[in-house]
Amino acid sequence: MTLLEEGLLKQPKWRFIDQTNVNPAFGALESYATDDTLCRTVGKKVSPPTLRAWVHEKTVSLGIQDTKLPKLQEGIAFLKEAGYQVVLRNSGGLAVVLDQEVLNLSLILPDVERGIAIDRGYETMFTLIKDMFADFDQVIEAREIERSYCPGSYDLSIEGRKFAGIAQRRMAKGVSVQIYLALNGNQDERSTLIREFYKRSGKDLQEKYKFPDVDPSVMGTLSGSLEQELTVNDIVRRLLNSLRYYAGELYSSTLSAEELDLLPQYFERIIQRNEKIK
């Protein structure tokens, strides 16, 4: 670990918000609005750095570039017929699959005076994930896995099989570093779903944007790669054990009264953003 990465994790106080119990009334759009709310309060330093864990029912989360697909509505119709909700998120990347066996983590930090470099945010999350699984022999790598869904330079993989991807959202002097961790489930089915979505959305009918030709063989789950069955609760326990090492104080809470007041306006903003895919 570099001193820079340790500096971001070593905070006088960390707050943990647990939203891993699936609630049909609390969907992915509410999650993205929650992260924006936290960016605002953490960025203003009225709330401490916050780690939020969240899980949702079957959802495909699209990136802004996906809105450039020439036959997007046909692709969305296919996803809905397959039983998935479809949302447009406010962070980077392309389409990813969320379900009850995919754990999402958001690391919300105040931006520093000269700004947290983008790679530094990614490296901080990567450092935390490596620390959580340091007792395993397998090596977790951060590099682009070609033909994965939502490929990027900070894909996390073991022996070439991707199980996680990292994105960032920056606003109101706050930084949200988000990761999805595919713990269990059928990653072949998830990959095939996204490959078919891009086919039906006409990715090959345009040349301006690059969309992945998804190969299910390069995608895996964390349980499969580590050869140990892991649950959401297992990961949350590892997460808290790792964070306690860095935190002067670590406590669990819900949103503050100020955050609950701010949340509706950020939810309305992301609802308006999602008009682009209707």
Automatic annotation (TrEMBL):
The keyword Ligase applies. The keyword rRNA-binding does not apply. Catalyzes the amidotransfer (transamidation) of the lipoyl moiety from lipoyl-GcvH to the lipoyl domain of the E2 subunit of lipoate-dependent enzymes. Takes part in a pathway for scavenging of lipoic acid. PANTHER family: OCTANOYL-[GCVH]:PROTEIN N-OCTANOYLTRANSFERASE, OCTANOYLTRANSFERASE LIPM-RELATED. CDD domains: LplA. Keywords: Acyltransferase, Ligase, Transferase. This is Lipoyl-[GcvH]:protein N-lipoyltransferase. The record marks K162 as: Lowers pKa of active site Cys. The active site is at C150. It is an enzyme of class 2 (transferase). Pathway: Protein modification; protein lipoylation via exogenous pathway. It comes from the Bacteria. One of its GO terms (molecular function) is lipoyl(octanoyl) transferase activity. The reaction proceeds via a thioester-linked acyl-enzyme intermediate. Belongs to the octanoyltransferase LipL family. It catalyses: N(6)-[(R)-lipoyl]-L-lysyl-[glycine-cleavage complex H protein] + L-lysyl-[lipoyl-carrier protein] = L-lysyl-[glycine-cleavage complex H protein] + N(6)-[(R)-lipoyl]-L-lysyl-[lipoyl-carrier protein]. GO terms for biological process: lipoate biosynthetic process; protein lipoylation. It comes from Listeria aquatica FSL S10-1188.
